[in-house]
Request: fold
Amino acid sequence: MQDRYISIEGISRAYPAPGGGVTTIFDDLWLGVARGEFVAVIGHSGCGKTTVLNILAGLDVPSSGVVVVDGKAIEGPSLDRAVIFQSHALLPWKSALGNVAYAVASRWPKWSRGEVSAKAMAAIRLVGLEHAAERRPAELSGGMKQRVGIARALSIDPKILLMDEPFSALDALTRGTLQDEVRNICVETGQTVFMITHDVDEAIYLADKIVLMTNGPGARIAEIVVNPLPDGRTRNDVHRHPAYYPLRNHIIDFLVTRSKSFDGELAAGRPWDARNPPLVNPVAPERAPLAPVPVPAGPSGEAVEAGPVLTQAQRRRTT
Ligand SMILES: Nc1ncnc2c1ncn2[C@@H]1O[C@H](COP(=O)(O)OP(=O)(O)O)[C@@H](O)[C@H]1O
Ligand SMILES: [Mg+2]
Reply:
């Protein structure tokens, strides 16, 4: 049975519309994320990606539906779930180490200063910032500030790591380096990650699965692309893999045309179930969708389905 460590169950979000009535930004989203899985969400601006992430963070609530993490419905923010924002959101009066230590002390309030400091320093070391541990945010470059944000998120040993376009404000070189570091850390620690990006190559490099959202209002999860690239991929060799272009073209084609036309595809009779978005392998499209397997019951008690895909961490654990 597939592990649904994060289980998004039929969520929608509606806002009052300017002329009266409501606008439903996204509708009836279902998604399971296994423990140790790295999931990236791609969709056009305004389809509700940040809203979904905020719901996962407990900073927003869905208009309908629930999200369950590790068997418990989300009810507000929790130190089990760490967020890395696009802007680092550091406390300006604290040093890099101080910012991380602040998070560690909130997570483990009974710890001694020494324990807090050691844990914070370990996270600072993880992102290669030991030389700048005592500097304040104003004395750090954009990339270093984002590194502190990553260290702070990882320092609290979160059950899930939520990232909203975490590298989009960085220059290309720094972005690449940080992508490498985040990938290495997540692979080594088996971290469960939910990331939003609009960068197709970033999703291909980092994610086990790439969730494709249609345009809002009424945005949907059209399909879930299973990344066929090998676990040992590096940023500099992904484009040499024979699966790279079919994968990339499939995602770009979705963004350019199908994200708009998907409702038309459904109207034309395309089989599709919101509760069980198809798992697609773009390298062997004739095999898509992959065979579903039963997963735990949804909130209304019916069985829901999801694909039999092992995460990188699971594959590593089994080999
Ligand atoms: N408080 C709000 N009131 C009304 N509309 C909102 C509010 N917050 C977000 N929205 C709308 O919800 C839509 C989705 O926003 P967002 O989740 O930020 O999308 P994305 O991250 O995919 O660009 C946008 O059209 C935005 O205008
Ligand atoms: Mg956004």
Observations:
- The longest strand covers residues 22-33.
- The pocket of magnesium ion (ligand 2) is lined by residues 49-50 (CB under 6 Å).
